[in-house]
Amino acid sequence: MAAHLKAREPRCVVDANRLIVRDGTIWTAGAALAHTDLMLQLLRARCGAALADGVSRVLLIDGREAQAPFIVPAMLASGNNLVAEISAQIEAALPGPPSVAELARTRGMSERTLARQLKTASGKNPSALIQFVRLKRARLLLETSRLSIDQIAERVGYRDATALRRLMRKTFGATPSQFRKRIG
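The chain above was modelled as a monomer; its predicted structure follows.
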């Protein structure tokens, strides 16, 4: 719903990858468990990490600090067929995702028009959407297979695992190894 929020209030800075956003004394949270995430962050800020971590354990709440790992690419569509179709086309083409020019050409539109429509519908430009779909596939492979990180990087179109590690850390706040540990 980030794109809808941005459209409704253009002055608002929307970061769909973060659970908690602080602007001075104002704290905001999004997603289904926003109240819980906000409570834990306020406890951490005012009472310390030990108390927040203890409450988190008692309530059986994981230590997530970003919501990007939980976003499903198709959900970015929010009912928008263009985003859903492009996400599916990108995923089907992995490890060699189509270029932005190819995505636009197959839909009979310019790259600028495609970029504008994707940004409005999903909050992401075409390159960011391609990157996001690749990273979500990598995460799925980490969680459901025993492929090495190098093999996974290759399957989603990265030349080496270093790029995959860096992008997963930046986007999801976790390394590939941390996703693998989550499944045992």
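The radius of gyration is 18 Å.
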